[in-house]
Amino acid sequence: MADTWLVVGLGNPGPDYERTRHNIGRMVVAELERRAGASPKKHGKAEALVAESRVIGGPKVVTAFPLSFMNRSGGPVAKLMDYYGVEVDRVIVLHDELDLPLGELRLKQGGGHGGHNGMRDIIAARGPEVLRVRLGIGRPPGRQDAAEFVLRPFAKAEQAEAELLVQLGADAVERVIAEGFLAAQQRIHAPS
């Protein structure tokens, strides 16, 4: 289906992880579903929650949240790509990014996993060409372990910035679908 997009928010399943930094990609998918009035349901062929919507006069958009843990995201993404017939250049993966300050985002196509285990598994399953929305969560303070840091919720002082990032992430996905990746990337990375 050449007019279908697959948008995947990475994170860990379950209430213990729901509002953690590692689940910011899932939070953006939830916002996209809210905007579209779409309700996610468990997908029968892939271990994921999936919602389908259509942009008015435009493409079908499938939003997904793998129900596997972050480091096993590749299998559900590959199964959803096969089920919906989506090519790799129509897959947008949203994930947390330690190397960007909280609140910043960057669009990226291709390249390595940058130490992100969810992206590592997706790249192993389908190659590095997927489109990415990298959502900045900042670096851990002091000597705090990064693995521990990403599994913590945002601090109260960071809540407003995290909520804004969710909105910006959803806006970025909508822009990629409406304008194309390069035009969206230019507009987001060099706003006028």
CA radius of gyration is: 15 Å
In CATH, the topology is named Rossmann fold
**What's the order of the H and E elements?**
EHEEEHEEHEHHH
List the uncertain runs: none
Helix content: 25-40%
Total beta strand runs: 7
Main sheet specs? 7 strands, mixed
Give the class from helix and strand content and strand pairing: alpha/beta
Shape: globular
Query: From the coordinates shown, what is the CATH architecture?
Result: 3-Layer(aba) Sandwich
Q: Which sequence of strands runs across the widest sheet?
A: 2-3-4-1-5-7-6
Task: Give the CATH superfamily.
Answer: Peptidyl-tRNA hydrolase
Mean pLDDT level: 92
| Amino- and carboxy-terminal Cα gap | 35 Å
Q: Please identify the top-level CATH class.
A: Alpha Beta
Task: Give an account of the 3D structure.
This protein has helices at 24-36, 74-84, 117-126, 146-150, 159-179, 181-189, and strands at residues 4-9, 41-42, 48-54, 60-66, 91-97, 105-109, 131-136. By secondary structure, it is α/β, with parallel strands linked by helices. It has one domain (4-189): 3-Layer(aba) Sandwich (Rossmann fold). The protein has a seven-stranded mixed beta sheet, sandwiched between helices. A hairpin with a 5-residue loop joins β3 and β4. The termini are far apart. The model has no long low-confidence stretch (mean pLDDT 92).
